[in-house]
Amino acid sequence: MNNQTLLSHLRNVPDFPVPGIQFKDVSTLYKNPRCLRIMVNELYELYRNRGITKVVGIESRGFVVGAALAYKLGAGFVMARKPGKLPAETLSQNYMKEYGKDTIEIHTDAITDKDVVLLHDDLLATGGSMLAAYKLVQQFKPKDVMVNFIIELTIEGLNGRSVFPPEVDITALLKI
Ligand code: AMP
Fold it and tell me: What are the pLDDT digits (tens) for 115-132?
Protein backbone atom coordinates (compact mmCIF):
# COMPACT_ATOMS: atom_id res chain seq x y z
CA MET A 1 0.00 0.00 0.00
CA ASN A 2 2.71 2.47 1.03
CA ASN A 3 4.89 1.27 -1.81
CA GLN A 4 2.02 1.73 -4.24
CA THR A 5 1.59 5.30 -3.01
CA LEU A 6 5.28 6.00 -3.56
CA LEU A 7 5.31 4.31 -6.97
CA SER A 8 2.25 6.20 -8.13
CA HIS A 9 3.86 9.54 -7.21
CA LEU A 10 7.31 8.87 -8.67
CA ARG A 11 7.86 10.77 -11.91
CA ASN A 12 9.68 9.04 -14.76
CA VAL A 13 11.41 11.43 -17.17
CA PRO A 14 12.45 9.68 -20.40
CA ASP A 15 15.72 10.68 -22.08
CA PHE A 16 17.08 12.76 -19.17
CA PRO A 17 19.89 13.81 -18.87
CA VAL A 18 20.78 11.98 -22.11
CA PRO A 19 18.77 9.95 -24.65
CA GLY A 20 17.99 6.42 -23.45
CA ILE A 21 17.99 7.14 -19.69
CA GLN A 22 14.71 6.71 -17.80
CA PHE A 23 15.25 9.25 -15.03
CA LYS A 24 13.42 8.49 -11.75
CA ASP A 25 12.61 11.94 -10.42
CA VAL A 26 12.28 11.73 -6.63
CA SER A 27 11.41 15.43 -6.37
CA THR A 28 7.79 14.36 -6.83
CA LEU A 29 8.12 12.16 -3.71
CA TYR A 30 9.92 14.83 -1.71
CA LYS A 31 7.31 17.51 -2.45
CA ASN A 32 4.35 15.30 -1.48
CA PRO A 33 3.66 15.44 2.29
CA ARG A 34 2.27 11.90 2.43
CA CYS A 35 5.16 10.40 0.45
CA LEU A 36 7.74 12.26 2.52
CA ARG A 37 6.18 10.94 5.70
CA ILE A 38 5.95 7.37 4.36
CA MET A 39 9.62 7.34 3.36
CA VAL A 40 10.92 8.74 6.65
CA ASN A 41 8.62 6.56 8.77
CA GLU A 42 9.42 3.36 6.86
CA LEU A 43 13.14 3.97 7.15
CA TYR A 44 12.76 4.80 10.83
CA GLU A 45 11.04 1.43 11.41
CA LEU A 46 13.82 -0.34 9.47
CA TYR A 47 16.69 1.28 11.37
CA ARG A 48 15.34 2.33 14.78
CA ASN A 49 16.95 -0.60 16.63
CA ARG A 50 20.28 -0.65 14.80
CA GLY A 51 22.18 1.76 17.03
CA ILE A 52 22.83 4.25 14.24
CA THR A 53 24.73 7.33 15.41
CA LYS A 54 25.36 9.02 12.01
CA VAL A 55 23.38 9.15 8.79
CA VAL A 56 25.56 10.05 5.81
CA GLY A 57 23.63 11.58 2.89
CA ILE A 58 25.08 11.60 -0.63
CA GLU A 59 24.94 14.99 -2.39
CA SER A 60 22.39 16.17 -3.10
CA ARG A 61 19.25 14.06 -3.30
CA GLY A 62 20.49 11.99 -0.37
CA PHE A 63 20.33 15.03 1.91
CA VAL A 64 16.55 15.35 2.02
CA VAL A 65 15.31 12.11 3.56
CA GLY A 66 18.74 11.43 5.10
CA ALA A 67 18.54 14.49 7.33
CA ALA A 68 14.90 13.88 8.27
CA LEU A 69 15.73 10.28 9.17
CA ALA A 70 18.75 11.31 11.25
CA TYR A 71 16.54 13.68 13.22
CA LYS A 72 13.99 10.96 13.86
CA LEU A 73 16.64 8.38 14.82
CA GLY A 74 18.31 10.84 17.19
CA ALA A 75 21.48 10.51 15.08
CA GLY A 76 23.75 13.13 13.56
CA PHE A 77 23.73 13.95 9.84
CA VAL A 78 26.88 14.06 7.67
CA MET A 79 27.17 15.40 4.13
CA ALA A 80 29.15 13.40 1.56
CA ARG A 81 29.89 16.05 -1.07
CA LYS A 82 31.43 16.65 -4.46
CA PRO A 83 35.04 17.88 -4.46
CA GLY A 84 35.81 21.41 -3.29
CA LYS A 85 32.48 21.98 -1.55
CA LEU A 86 33.41 21.18 2.06
CA PRO A 87 35.38 23.99 3.74
CA ALA A 88 37.44 22.12 6.35
CA GLU A 89 39.87 19.19 6.08
CA THR A 90 38.42 16.21 4.22
CA LEU A 91 39.01 12.56 3.41
CA SER A 92 38.20 11.67 -0.19
CA GLN A 93 37.58 8.71 -2.45
CA ASN A 94 37.94 8.62 -6.23
CA TYR A 95 35.72 6.51 -8.46
CA MET A 96 35.01 5.93 -12.13
CA LYS A 97 31.86 7.25 -13.75
CA GLU A 98 30.54 6.49 -17.22
CA TYR A 99 32.52 9.43 -18.59
CA GLY A 100 35.68 9.99 -16.55
CA LYS A 101 36.61 10.14 -12.88
CA ASP A 102 34.81 11.66 -9.93
CA THR A 103 35.54 12.20 -6.23
CA ILE A 104 33.47 12.26 -3.05
CA GLU A 105 34.52 13.94 0.21
CA ILE A 106 33.62 13.97 3.92
CA HIS A 107 35.05 16.19 6.66
CA THR A 108 37.75 14.33 8.62
CA ASP A 109 36.04 15.12 11.94
CA ALA A 110 32.54 14.05 10.77
CA ILE A 111 32.77 10.34 11.71
CA THR A 112 34.73 8.49 14.42
CA ASP A 113 35.53 4.85 15.15
CA LYS A 114 32.70 4.86 17.72
CA ASP A 115 30.02 5.60 15.11
CA VAL A 116 27.49 3.24 13.58
CA VAL A 117 26.82 4.70 10.12
CA LEU A 118 23.88 4.51 7.75
CA LEU A 119 24.68 5.65 4.22
CA HIS A 120 21.68 6.99 2.32
CA ASP A 121 20.99 8.05 -1.28
CA ASP A 122 17.90 8.35 -3.43
CA LEU A 123 18.71 5.70 -6.02
CA LEU A 124 20.94 2.69 -6.72
CA ALA A 125 21.81 2.27 -10.40
CA THR A 126 25.29 0.84 -11.13
CA GLY A 127 26.32 1.28 -7.48
CA GLY A 128 29.52 3.14 -8.39
CA SER A 129 28.86 6.31 -6.41
CA MET A 130 27.60 4.53 -3.29
CA LEU A 131 30.48 2.07 -3.36
CA ALA A 132 32.85 5.06 -3.33
CA ALA A 133 30.92 6.53 -0.38
CA TYR A 134 31.06 3.15 1.38
CA LYS A 135 34.84 2.94 0.91
CA LEU A 136 35.19 6.54 2.06
CA VAL A 137 33.24 5.88 5.26
CA GLN A 138 35.30 2.73 5.90
CA GLN A 139 38.41 4.96 6.03
CA PHE A 140 37.02 6.30 9.35
CA LYS A 141 36.89 2.72 10.75
CA PRO A 142 33.39 3.01 12.21
CA LYS A 143 31.84 0.15 14.22
CA ASP A 144 29.42 -0.68 11.41
CA VAL A 145 28.22 0.70 8.06
CA MET A 146 24.79 0.04 6.51
CA VAL A 147 23.51 1.21 3.14
CA ASN A 148 20.04 2.39 2.11
CA PHE A 149 18.31 3.73 -0.98
CA ILE A 150 14.79 4.87 -1.65
CA ILE A 151 14.87 3.18 -5.07
CA GLU A 152 16.86 0.21 -6.35
CA LEU A 153 16.87 -0.01 -10.15
CA THR A 154 16.88 -3.59 -11.35
CA ILE A 155 15.55 -2.97 -14.86
CA GLU A 156 17.77 -3.42 -17.92
CA GLY A 157 19.97 -5.92 -16.12
CA LEU A 158 21.21 -3.44 -13.52
CA ASN A 159 22.54 -5.13 -10.38
CA GLY A 160 24.15 -2.37 -8.36
CA ARG A 161 24.18 -4.55 -5.24
CA SER A 162 26.69 -6.86 -6.81
CA VAL A 163 29.52 -4.29 -6.63
CA PHE A 164 29.43 -4.33 -2.79
CA PRO A 165 31.07 -6.96 -0.60
CA PRO A 166 28.40 -9.63 0.09
CA GLU A 167 28.30 -8.91 3.85
CA VAL A 168 27.13 -5.31 3.38
CA ASP A 169 23.57 -4.74 4.65
CA ILE A 170 21.72 -2.97 1.79
CA THR A 171 18.03 -2.02 1.76
CA ALA A 172 15.73 -0.16 -0.64
CA LEU A 173 12.12 0.93 -0.17
CA LEU A 174 11.23 0.42 -3.84
CA LYS A 175 12.66 -2.04 -6.36
CA ILE A 176 11.91 -1.04 -9.92
P1 AMP B 1 25.11 4.87 -9.65
O2 AMP B 1 26.42 5.36 -9.10
O3 AMP B 1 25.19 4.40 -11.07
O4 AMP B 1 24.44 3.86 -8.74
O5 AMP B 1 24.15 6.14 -9.74
C6 AMP B 1 23.49 6.60 -8.63
C7 AMP B 1 23.40 8.09 -8.62
O8 AMP B 1 23.04 8.61 -9.90
C9 AMP B 1 22.28 8.50 -7.65
O10 AMP B 1 22.75 9.63 -6.96
C11 AMP B 1 21.11 8.85 -8.53
O12 AMP B 1 20.52 10.02 -8.08
C13 AMP B 1 21.70 9.05 -9.94
N14 AMP B 1 20.99 8.23 -10.96
C15 AMP B 1 21.54 7.27 -11.73
N16 AMP B 1 20.65 6.74 -12.57
C17 AMP B 1 19.49 7.36 -12.33
C18 AMP B 1 18.15 7.25 -12.87
N19 AMP B 1 17.84 6.37 -13.84
N20 AMP B 1 17.19 8.05 -12.37
C21 AMP B 1 17.49 8.93 -11.38
N22 AMP B 1 18.72 9.09 -10.84
C23 AMP B 1 19.72 8.33 -11.30
Answer: 999 999 999 999 999 999
Which parts of the chain fold into alpha helices (H)?
2-9, 27-30, 33-47, 62-73, 128-138
Tell me the pTM: 0.97
User: Residue 99 pLDDT more than 80?
Assistant: no
- Answer whether the bond into residue 14 is a cis peptide, omega within 30°: no
**Is 83 in contact with 115 (CB distance < 8 Å)?**
no
Active site residue 59: no
- Give residue-wise pLDDT tens across range 12-38: 999 999 999 999 999 999 999 999 999
Which residue's alpha carbon is nearest to atom 10 within ligand 1? Answer: 123
53 lines ligand 1 (CB under 6 A): no
